[in-house]
Specification:
alpha/beta, 14 strands, binds pyridoxal-5'-phosphate, 19 helices, Rossmann fold
Length: about 425
Amino acid sequence: MFHVELYSTANPSSSYSLKEAVLTGLAPDGGLFMPHHIIPLPNSFWSDFYQKSFNQICIEVAQHLLHPAVPNQDIPTLIHRAFNFEAPLVQLDDQISVLELFHGPSLAFKDFGAQFMAQLMAYFHPKSEKPLVILVATSGDTGGAVAAGFHNVPGIQVVILFPKGKVSPLQQKQLTTFDNNVTAVEIDGSFDDCQTMVKKAFLDKDLKKSVNLSSANSINIARLIPQSFYFFSAVQQLNTQNDIVVSVPSGNFGNLTAGLLAQSLGLPIKHFVASTNINDVIPIYLRTGRFTARPSIQTLSNAMDVGNPSNFDRMQALYGSTWNHMKSDISGYSFTDKQTLSSIKYIHDQYEYIADPHAAVGFLGLQSYLRENPKARGIFLATAHHSKFKQTIDQALNFDTPVHPVLNRLKNLSESYISLPNSNTTLKHLLLDKFT
Ligand SMILES: *Cc1c(COP(=O)(O)O)cnc(C)c1O
């Protein structure tokens, strides 16, 4: 149980409350928040595990992790507000199943984290105070999930910076078609410029005095916690006595870290596969014990183009920095774009199933592992709906693949956003004008 004392990975003897961790995202010393103690779930949780609904799983795991920082009786409401979608497991053959994580509003697994984080932030932010202003930079996918998560959440305003002309037209629609409390801002610059502007805004003394700024980045502990829920659901739906291995298509390794958290809570997952594209810092670490960050390389599975995975510190924290333990629990494999395209084709030919490029990498990792461990039952995670990557999928499959109705609807919505130069002072004025 978190007992709701957290520490910063930069200083193991530090101590923070859950509220502080959720509202600040990153520890003041630059480390990531982690629970001091992770206590396995009680026997009572397991006695009727196979009868629980998805919602019940979420509620009970959240209660175990968050009480008393969030009292038990307040948790069902949080869960109901966060999740009106689930994570179905689809069996492809006797050995392989796929966990579909794309049934949320932005059609990607980041919805689980963003929806729950939004509810938890609203919970911790007293409505009587000035609005909490969430300021984020996005290179694409995260912004859509954050916008959908916070849309119409009382007491919270969201400002999303995106680089002009550098997000896909569809991703831009996912940022700019909300109203009310979501403001999209196009910056005449790169994604790095957007991130720098966010960082500078957080350091600005005038802003600090007059605006209640907060971040919603992917390293917030409030995004990690809900991502553990669907690992429970996956194991429950698979319902097997065999060893279970889960392959996680990974970039920043938040998803895989959430799986490790579920395992620490007692979930019987025997092994994890860290599946990456050619940005393979972690598979190399698992093979050699050496972690060397590198600039990221662009690939078809672009949400995993990460050269310095931020959750590596958390993985190390869970394993007490011992490489031996980590590598006996996790295998790493990396794949090229060419292999990803053939994998999409293979999965369709073999199972009549359409996997997005990220899921296809997950499938490849699982396949590699199962070759050596043929008795295990495998699950790979499908982290996005395939029609978000229609061009790539059509190229791999050589036909016009169907578009998800949510994306079709989006095409007809009109966009609204503010355009700003790459300048800290104009952003500052915008924030002061809007929120004071
Ligand atoms: C963000 C993302 C990933 C990578 O997840 P991490 O938690 O950063 O490892 C994989 N697939 C999709 C579709 C994503 O959006």
